[in-house]
Amino acid sequence: RKEVEQDPGPFNVPEGATVAFNCTYSNSASQSFFWYRQDCRKEPKLLMSVYSSGNEDGRFTAQLNRASQYISLLIRDSKLSDSATYLCVVNQPSGSARQLTFGSGTQLTVLP
Amino acid sequence: DTGVSQDPRHKITKRGQNVTFRCDPISEHNRLYWYRQTLGQGPEFLTYFQNEAQLEKSRLLSDRFSAERPKGSFSTLEIQRTEQGDSAMYLCASSLDSGTQPQHFGDGTRLSIL
Fold first, then answer.
1. Which residues contact residue B77 at a Cβ distance below 8 angstroms, ignoring those fewer than 6 apart?
2. Closest Cα in chain B, distance from residue A112 (Å)
3. Collapsed DSSP state (helix, strand, coil) of residue A102
4. At residue A94, what are phi and psi to the nearest 5 degrees?
5. Residues facing B32 on adjacent strands
6. Rounded CA gap, A63 and A53, in Å?
7. DSSP character at residue A81
8. Which chain A residue has its CA at the smallest distance from B99's CA?
9. A94 pLDDT higher than 80
10. Is the pLDDT of residue A97 over 70?
11. Could you give the CA distance from residue A78 to residue B52 in angstroms, rounded to a whole number?
């Protein structure tokens, strides 16, 4: 089983749609969670951290379910500029030198 | 620009040659990481430094790979006797001194082995 698993997509949605991505992680002791966004042939950029209580940043909402080891990202009122690959990222537990494990990414295309 | 910078952006070389990449992290970040990314995959961890100390190397980092961060600032990643399977994007990231801090990535060096 992969340490971080995501549905690779692609998700093709019309502008204005709401879209949700899911991610599961295998290590129950993981402590920090992030969503990164990566445009084609560019570097990953931090989209948002994911907090235990869930958090929102504009049109983006992230949620964490520790019991199910599950993270989600919801994008409302999607824009053409949201087209990218969204990477679910989980850190390793304290004491492990390795820091972050990335999922393979979910590809989103927002269509006009 | 005070972000993470990497050089070169692209490198094309013949199989068997040695290549070296450079990464300059965000100045106040004492952690520096190297990742490798191939098409359709997320970045895979290679190694990381806290200041000048290299604290872990992934199993992906064969003996042909070596990384240094001699003064705790910039870092170099060298690949000796390159193979076609080394073709990938090599990403550098830096962060503050905590495992919970997000990492900030450079633009990457795209390596193509002919």
1. B20, B21, B23, B34, B46, B65, B66, B67, B90, B92
2. 25
3. strand
4. -55, 135
5. B49, B94
6. 7
7. G
8. A99
9. no
10. no
11. 43
Nearest to A38 by CA among B72, B40, B33, B57: B40
The pLDDT of residue A11 is above 90: yes
The radius of gyration of chain B from alpha carbons, rounded to an integer in Å, stands at 13
Q: By percentage, how much of chain B surpasses pLDDT 70?
A: 96
Half-sphere exposure of B79 (CA within 13 A, CB side): 27
With CB atoms and an 8 Å threshold, state whether A101 touches B31.
no
The reply to whether A108 touches chain B by the CB within 8 Å rule is no
Give the mean model confidence (pLDDT) for residues B88-102.
85
Q: Out of B43, B102, B110, whose CB is closest to A34?
A: B102
- Angstroms from A33 CA to nearest CA on chain B: 8
- Paired tokens of B69: 């961060």
* Burial of residue B67, with CB atoms counted within 10 A of its CB: 0-12 exposed, 13-18 middle, 19 or more buried: buried
What string of DSSP letters covers B78-96? EE-S--GGG-EEEEEEEE-
**What are the φ/ψ torsions at residue B12 (nearest 5 degrees)?**
-115, 130
Residue of A2, A3, A43, A64 for testing the chain B interface, max B β-carbons within 10 Å: A43
Distance from CA of B76 to the nearest CA of A (A): 18
